From TrEMBL:
The chain crosses the membrane at residues 21-41, 47-64, 76-96, 108-126, 147-170, 176-198, 230-251, 263-285, 297-317, 323-353, 365-386, 398-417. It comes from the Bacteria. Keywords: Membrane, Transmembrane, Transmembrane helix. Signal peptide: none annotated. GO terms for molecular function: transmembrane transporter activity. Pfam families: HEAT_2 (PF13646), MFS_1 (PF07690). The keyword Ribonucleoprotein does not apply. It comes from Gracilinema caldarium. This is MFS transporter.
Amino acid sequence: MTSHLTPYQLKKSRKLYNLFNGFNAFSFTILSGSVITLYALRLGATSTVIGILNAFVFTAFFFMPVGKILVRRFPIVHVFATSWLIRYLVMIPLVVAPFFDRMGRTDIALTLMMIGVFAFHASRGVGMIGNNPVLNEMAAGPDRGAYMTHIQVIASAVSMFTSLGVALLLGRKPPLMVYALLMTIGIVSGVIGSLMLYRIPEPPAEEQGKREEFFAVVRRALRRAPFRRFIVIFLTLSLISSVSRAFIVVYSRNVYAQGDGLISLYSVFGSLGALAIGLLTRLLVDRVGAKPLYITYTFAAVIGLLPAILSPFAGAANSISPWVVPVFLALLFFMVNFAFAGTEGVAQTYFFGLIRPTDMLDLGILYYIVYGIAGAAGSFAAGLFLDSLVNAGLSQVMAFRILFTSLIFLLLVVLFWQRKLIRLGALPLRGALGVIFSFRDLRALTLLERLEKSRNVQEEREVLEALHDTPSTVALTELLDRLRSPRLSVRIEALRAIEALETLNTEAEDALIEDVQNNPFTTAYISCRILGNHGVRKAIPLIRTLLRAEDYMLVGEAMLALARLGDQDFRPQIEEYIKTTKNPRIRIMGASALETFGAYESIQVLLDLLREENPPPYLRDEVVLSIAGIVGILERFYPLLVQYREDPALVNALALDEIEEITEQISTRRRTKTSLNNKSVIRELKDSVTKFVNSYDGQQLSRWILTYLGETKEFDVYLFAQAILEDDLVAHDRFRLLVCTWAANRLLLHV
């Protein structure tokens, strides 16, 4: 989706929304969750009351239809902001609740709390009608998933630090007036954040004439199996999440007798878990996809709840170190929030990808109603369930073990269902897990995040260079985007990074073919090289035509690409082109291409280049190396050629040394593969090579080659036997060194 705002307007609006999100997260952390639970427990609330209070969180979503009615008469941002402002003002009764407790009217204090919490979430529900359209506008663009996760990261970070401050303020057993102070702080900060909402631009209104009724939209969506399947999974996971995240607070209090301050501190670790999963999801969601992350995070929830079933330190406080239980509970809070914050975040991303933009308002209401039903029912039922188990005579430990075991069973059922969700693009589960558990891929993702934020060419180039050193297929889409950069240096670095990848997809292959067609003299030669290196055979017809190109670099890379693609049918044309061109660069690359083809017949073409009058030394080097590659002695010949270039006077000594080394290798063998007299053969070879390198006389060596190697009937044997009789070839030191090395190594193979 494309935003209706200009880039500057979108940037400005995101800043405002981020500020609102920060203030909102700060106030919401204080006015909900573990703080409200601890406040209620301080007032003497039972598990059933705790369940009802947590259920109120989810009743918000049943008030969204009221918001829908209001947005027909008023601007959607105005409805959003006003409802948010009201929700904080209705929490004032919680400020005065401690005064009634002092008078011995705890019932009135709890009633005020329940009224305030209910009104808080009811107002929230009315305003939430505007949240999805506003967030949808803020998240417009290719970074949709990343920005939505960014919002979650901000909220989690603020919540974490807020929970830490709350923990320090509460201590072990704080007076009720401390909770009244916290409520006041939460209300004031919430009002400030709500006022910021009024400054956010209004999202485009839907055309009323074309709108379907709510129930018609819902019925049409539910007729689709993928949407039904998602809703069932989302409902079940929301129920499990609401119970788990709410009742680990009660679990810490009732099973391990932890103080209010410590439990608030555990909530900090919970927020840290949500923050960690948010940062990870921001990197992954747009490139890996929501489905594999949905499954992975659900499995993490199973792992996170397992320790709660075991309750390993319950009743053992006197026999273990005092820090063991706090560490255990801190990790439990971290894992539970890590997993369920992850599932909730990717569920919303998956939902947005599953529905049509025109259905956003109506199906957004359904989304939250389902969330509300699951959360309210789960919290209320879990509270009653725990109280009934305890009243039946079970211990708190056993009651919670039964509860968490039931939740894990439901999670395993959800994991089975999730396999049937449609992918909505991106990666399959196995591929996603490969990315998640790959340091290289995660490193690449962090670099991509830097790439998205880069503001100048130098930054882009630096990141692209780093991506070349950290090749990962998850970066491919962004690298292809950089091929459209107006700066040549950026396009070159992007291609270098693509070249380093092990595999290419069809989109990348097509983009490279297009680059070859449209960008001669710039990047076409690099793209051509990549096509050859990655075996893109569908590019062969195009690459064949490049031998007529004016860009000589492109011509050279085209010959190499065809060789790497194994286009033997086109090899004669390449040989002919090498003969006719006078461009030394094309000749060198053509020689390398013939080496890659590996056909003995091509040796004659390469020898023709040596036969020319005064070929440049760098061309002679490449030609003899290509011949060495074709006949299979490149590894032995290359170091000899390097030594020769350092001191050309060593050519004869190097040739004779090679014979001596081969002789020693043969002498160490216990038996030979032929009936020939090895000593005689070796002696004749030494005599022949000595005469060849000292006197440039190849007749004796030619006879030796035909006599002792001719039985192989291989093309190169006869070719070299004839070539060393030609004065224009023998005159080249490099050629004589090549022939001597070849003869010695041939002898080693045949004795």
